[in-house]
């Protein structure tokens, strides 16, 4: 089967994992990565050569998939993978565009449980799991921030870490946004090594702040056995908390500090539970059944 996937750099990891999985399944898979502008996303959806399946999380790309199918008859099936953890994404004109995409697509997936759409969350690839010989025997009291540098939650995080009087150090996962382009500053290898050394992963969202911590990275924390300190707005927070792999906090310095302290005190058991939960989200035919 010839398959086209289109995404820009956020949530880049999600479709990249699916693309790698489909290649391993012997499908002829192409991955396009436009820059983070609507014009670029729309152009990336232009398909003249025949493909059996086209998948994207971007409404402007889906719109051009539908036009390409109408005028060139170049696409067999269209799948729209909605990023439903963004609360503002589908209002006003964006809501109208979303409705067109849902009605025009042959199938709609959602990255959170959002009936009536098929639930296909951020998934984990084999490379997201540390090799046994790379897992550190002793981890540092390191807290890893997964969000972007413009998040209003970051000052609260810094205050919480400072109040622990040097007991922990804060490390950024190198995720920032500059002039509309979302950038990841760390290489995959360095990023994985840092995750393997950490004892706490921070997945926080404050008020109406539109900059979320990356949910795909939260799953990767779990794969590396890193417990999470989360706000309730994180779409998988209840599941992580109920499994004992993390704690839910308010996005205030005192609450974050208590969450960090709890994870550090209970790290061995929470780490094992994190790894168990991560197994549920391994990419497989159970999730990606075309």
Structure write-up:
The chain is α/β, with parallel strands linked by helices and 290 residues long. It has two domains: 2-119, Response regulator (Rossmann fold, 3-Layer(aba) Sandwich), CATH 3.40.50.2300; 126-279, 3-Layer(aba) Sandwich (Rossmann fold). Helix content is 37%, strand content 19%. It is built from ten helices and 13 strands. The protein has helices spanning 12-24, 38-44, 59-72, 92-104, 154-162, 188-197, 215-223, 237-242, 253-265, 267-279, and strands at 2-6, 28-32, 51-56, 75-82, 107-110, 118-119, 142-145, 169-172, 175-178, 181-184, 200-203, 228-230, 246-248. A six-stranded parallel sheet has the order 2-1-3-4-5-6, sandwiched between helices. Strands 8-7-11-12-13 form a five-stranded parallel sheet, with helices on both faces. The protein has a two-stranded antiparallel ribbon with strand order 9-10. α4 links the parallel β4 (75-82) and β5 (107-110). The radius of gyration is 19 Å and the shape is elongated. The chain starts with a strand and ends in an 11-residue tail after the last helix. The model has no long low-confidence stretch (mean pLDDT 86).
How are the secondary structure elements laid out?
Blueprint: E1 2-6, H1 12-24, E2 28-32, H2 38-44, E3 51-56, H3 59-72, E4 75-82, H4 92-104, E5 107-110, E6 118-119, E7 142-145, H5 154-162, E8 169-172, E9 175-178, E10 181-184, H6 188-197, E11 200-203, H7 215-223, E12 228-230, H8 237-242, E13 246-248, H9 253-265, H10 267-279
Parallel strand pairs: 1-2, 1-3, 3-4, 4-5, 5-6, 7-8, 7-11, 11-12, 12-13
Antiparallel strand pairs: 9-10
